[in-house]
Amino acid sequence: MNSTMLIVDDAPEVHKLVRFHLDGEGIDIHSAFNGEQGILEAATLRPSLILLDVDMPGMDGFEVCRNLKSKPPTHALPIIFLTADSSQHSHIRGLNLGAADYMNKAFKPEELRARVRAALRLKSEIEKLAMVDGMTGLWNKTYMDLHLASHLSHSRRTNRPLACAVADIDNLKHINRNHGRTVGDRVLRAVGHILASQGRLEDTTGYLVNGKFIKLLPGIDGAGAGSLADRARVEIEKQLLEVDGVRVNATCSFGIADTHSGSESSLLDRADAALLSAKHAGRNRVSAIETKSRKINVRAAA
């Protein structure tokens, strides 16, 4: 998806110049010619980057920036100030208001491209970090919720199955209590690594909370997801007998559901119900909602 940029400047020639120099950068550029219009466009468009003139009649760039940074929908939008004023005081004022960068209007084309690329790259990295779990390095719940909605929509349009596997570490509380959180955290990371390594590139693995993981498997039904989950279960049991010389005997229970086994909107709920059945059946098991009967089938550990 192309990045979007909003230019807020009262001089039409600046818009033309910026568009000319950024041609071929893959940026969808929008224009506003005064501060009030810029605020409205920013709230509607939510651009990847705003190029904002300081010296505009009426509401100047500083006031526009202050307004945008004061509202949650536009607070995180990166802003590069454009100005003919090269004074340090002006630069400091803009940066103190939350601008990402400052550029003189007498810019060179390569400078413009470099600063815009850097701002877009930084925004992309920040967004990525905001959706990555710091403990496991996997996608977090926010990302997985968005990804699940996208996959469900694609599954509905193409009539291809989508399977959801949820996994829960069976004895994490026991490990934390008996061996400390440091060991427990290493178990979490190791389980996450094993789950992420099982499957295909198009599969997505995330960490939810309290030792619970999720894996989305597009194009795979419940039976295929169950087989993958059982391989992961065996690897976890085999690899996590010990962690750093500490005997932990970590295991996981799995719940499986797919889009052919019930309502799409309850895919995760049904996988959770299957997980609960695996727990009740003795843990270290894979439990799946059967496609036709919608009954829960529990695959016991060997």
Question: Judging from the principal axes of the Cα atoms, what is the shape?
Answer: elongated
Give helix and strand order, one letter per element, not per position: EHEHEHEHEHHEHHEEHEEEHEE
Low-confidence stretches: none
Oligomeric assembly: single chain
CATH superfamily name of the largest domain?
Reverse transcriptase/Diguanylate cyclase domain
CATH architectural designation of the largest domain: 2-Layer Sandwich
The chain-level mean pLDDT equals 90
Beta fraction: 15-25%
Question: How is the largest sheet built, in terms of strand order?
Answer: 7-8-6-11-12-13
Question: Tell me about the biggest sheet?
Answer: 6 strands, mixed
- What is the terminal separation in angstroms? 46 Å
Count the E strands: 13
Tell me the helix content.
40-55%
Write the CATH fold name of the largest domain.
Alpha-Beta Plaits
- Helix-strand category: alpha/beta
CATH class term of the largest domain = Alpha Beta
Question: If you had to describe this structure to a student in words, what would you say it looks like?
Answer:
α2 packs parallel to α3 and α8 (181-197) packs across α9 (222-239). The protein folds into two domains: 3-130, Response regulator (Rossmann fold, 3-Layer(aba) Sandwich), CATH 3.40.50; 141-299, 2-Layer Sandwich (Alpha-Beta Plaits), CATH 3.30.70.270. A hairpin with a 6-residue loop joins β12 (286-289) and β13. Helix content is 45%, strand content 22%. The protein has helices at residues 12-21, 35-45, 61-69, 88-96, 109-130, 141-158, 172-179, 181-197, 222-239, 267-280, and strands at residues 3-8, 27-32, 49-53, 79-83, 101-104, 162-169, 204-209, 212-218, 242-243, 246-247, 252-258, 286-289, 296-299. With 302 residues, the protein is an alpha/beta fold. The chain is elongated. The strands form three sheets. It has a six-stranded mixed beta sheet, with helices on both faces. It has a five-stranded parallel beta sheet with strand order 2-1-3-4-5, with helices on both faces.
